[in-house]
Amino acid sequence: MRISTGKILTAVTAVGVLATATPAQAQSADSAQQPVTKAAATSAGTEVAAAGLRKLYDERFTVKPNNAHYPGLRVSPAKAMQSLKHCFNCTFPVKGAPKKFPKENQRLNLEACAAFFACKDAPVRYHGLGSMKNAWYFTAEKGHFDGQGSKVYFNFYTGSKGYLELHVEGYVTHPSVPDSLNKRFALEKWQDFAHNMGVELD
């Protein structure tokens, strides 16, 4: 499955994700709903959707408390999304995140703050990914330190060992922060996100 090219913002907002399947990807409707398949679809789809952008990072995190001695949580991706919809900023770790789960095309005036650089404006708009209920993405607005039009994709899925995972991909246009610091901030924040969700679901 892959997201159609063209104006991703218009396409996703107006009609959802337009998907096609290659012979290698052909599968039944039931199997298409499997969490691991969703993760693969998100990865393939974002490559197409973000054409022309520069990939900054592509990371996967096990959702669990950082100090947990067990390998992970056998919790469904739907449970993670239910938690977010109950209270978005209870687990999403970026300053300015609202308590209510964002609506389609809603602007979020986020602010990226870290010990190693001053707080940076990070306004974004939220977009769902059609039938992929456990995934969404943000598109950067003017003034974002990643550059207007940058995108970050999030997807909760069940990993090959049955544990809940978080997949995050970041694409930038004209970042005002050096890549090394940008990646460091992103990795720390999304690890915090996975940790917060692990604490919430544990």
Secondary structure layout plus pairing:
Elements: H1 8-15, H2 29-32, H3 35-49, E1 54-62, H4 77-86, E2 107-114, E3 117-129, E4 132-140, E5 151-158, E6 164-172, H5 179-201
Antiparallel strand pairs: 1-6, 2-3, 3-4, 4-5, 5-6
Which features would summarize this protein structure in a list?
disordered N terminus, alpha+beta, Alpha-D-Glucose-1,6-Bisphosphate, Chain A, domain 4, 5 helices, six-stranded antiparallel β-sheet
Biggest β-sheet description: 6 strands, antiparallel
Distance, first to last CA: 32 Å
User: The CATH topology is what?
Assistant: Alpha-D-Glucose-1,6-Bisphosphate, Chain A, domain 4
Instruction: Describe the strand arrangement of the main beta sheet, using strand numbers.
Output: 1-6-5-4-3-2
Individual helix count: 5
SS elements, strand count: 6
Low-confidence stretches: 1-37
Cα-based radius of gyration, to the nearest Å: 16 Å
Order of helices and strands: HHHEHEEEEEH
Which overall shape is indicated by the principal axes computed on the Cα atoms? globular
CATH class call? Alpha Beta
Strand content: 25-35%
Q: Quaternary status of these chains?
A: single chain
**Level of helix content?**
25-40%
Domain module tally: 1
CATH superfamily: START domain
What structural category do the secondary elements indicate?
Answer: alpha+beta
**Annotated CATH architecture:** 2-Layer Sandwich
